[in-house]
């Protein structure tokens, strides 16, 4: 990429791809015991909610094979 470049309004944008920093970022801060506990409880709550909604919704999703025979109402029988 040593060819001519399009002009850009800011010189630092044009030189940004050549910039290399020798400064290393600080290491990430470890989570405290309270933060780990709260994350665990939040995860368990979400999983329990999903399992509970699945358990409540399963009867509506299952096929009831006992009522597949056609049922006639009293109006269709002329009563």
Compose a concise summary of this entry:
By secondary structure, the chain is mainly alpha-helical. It has helices at 11-14, 33-61.
Strand/helix succession: HH
Q: Mean of the pLDDT scores?
A: 76
- Major sheet, described briefly? none
Compute the CA-based radius of gyration: 33 Å
The CA-CA distance between the termini, in Å, is 90 Å
Q: What characteristic shape results from the CA principal axes?
A: elongated
Structural class: mainly alpha
Structure summary, number of beta strands:
0
Number of helices: 2
Detail the poorly predicted runs.
none
Helix content: 40-55%
Q: Which strand-content bin applies to the residues?
A: under 5%
Describe this structure in words.
The mean pLDDT is 76. Helices cover 42% and strands 0% of the residues. By secondary structure, the chain is mainly α. The chain contains two helices and no strands.
Write the layout of secondary structure elements.
Layout: H1 11-14, H2 33-61
Task: Please tag this protein with its features.
79 residues, mainly alpha, elongated
